[in-house]
Amino acid sequence: MINKNKGITFIKRGIAATLLLCLILVLGSCGDKNKEWTSFTEPLAEELMDKVAFADELAPVDMNIISTMYGVDESMLVDYKVLMSSGGTADEVAIFFAKNDKYANEIRTVVDARVEDQKAVMENYLPEEMDKLNNAIVSGVGPYVILCVTEDTETAKEIIDDYLK
Questions:
Q1: What string of DSSP letters covers 97-114?
Q2: Euclidean distance between CA atoms 149 and 131, whole angstroms
Q3: 51-93, pLDDT tens digit by residue?
Q4: Cα(113)–Cα(88) distance, rounded to whole angstroms?
Q5: Quick one: angle between helices 153-164 and 41-51, nearest 10?
Q6: HSE-up of 110 (CA within 13 Å, CB side)?
Q7: What distance in Å separates the CA atoms of residue 98 and residue 130, rounded to the nearest whole number?
């Protein structure tokens, strides 16, 4: 004769163990979402400017230009730094620290579009800049989106990767 209470207890324990396992998996998958991010836009920009070879002098641009060139609104950002060439090259650095992951995803989309727009312009205007644009670094993690257009992609990538760890 089978004891019904033992069978029910076994099922309850199995359900409880399954729920606990699911909870552990969900919490474990959160990863960097719970990471406390701090701004490193300025030190990253400074290190890129100091250690990466750019063909043109890059100068910081204000939010009006950023809004026009990228379509990024300041209300989406915690911090940012964008440096552009005079127009004689495609060299550019853009570092965006978004307020949340949704904004970071939107910014990533417009940064990708910016690179494609630059390719369309430079293809006929300065075709020698196409290699830089084809190898542009578009990177990021969490709330950060980073663009670096340079011939010195190896150095730039190492620096950016160090900050994104």
A1: EESSHHHHHHHHHHHHHH
A2: 10
A3: 999 999 999 999 999 999 999 999 999 999 999 999 899 999 9
A4: 20
A5: 160
A6: 19
A7: 29
Q: How many CB atoms lie within 10 A of CB 30?
A: 9
The whole-angstrom separation of Cα 163 and Cα 165 is: 6
Burial class (CB in 10 A: 0-12, 13-18, 19+), 32: exposed
Residue the block writes with tokens 């950060």: 144
Token reading at 154: 């190896």
Could you tell me the pTM of the whole model? 0.79
Residue 68 is which amino acid? T
CB 72 within 8 A of CB 104: no
User: Residue 84 forms beta bridges with which residues?
Assistant: 59, 92
What six digits make up the tokens of 119?
Answer: 């390719």
Is-contact 97 144, C-beta < 8 A?
A: yes
Q: DSSP for 63-79, please give it.
A: HHHHHHHH---GGGEEE
How far from chain centre, in Å, is Cα 32? 13
d(Cα 68, Cα 72) in Å, to the nearest integer?
8
Q: Which amino acid is at 121?
A: V
pLDDT category of residue 45 using cuts at 50, 70 and 90: very high
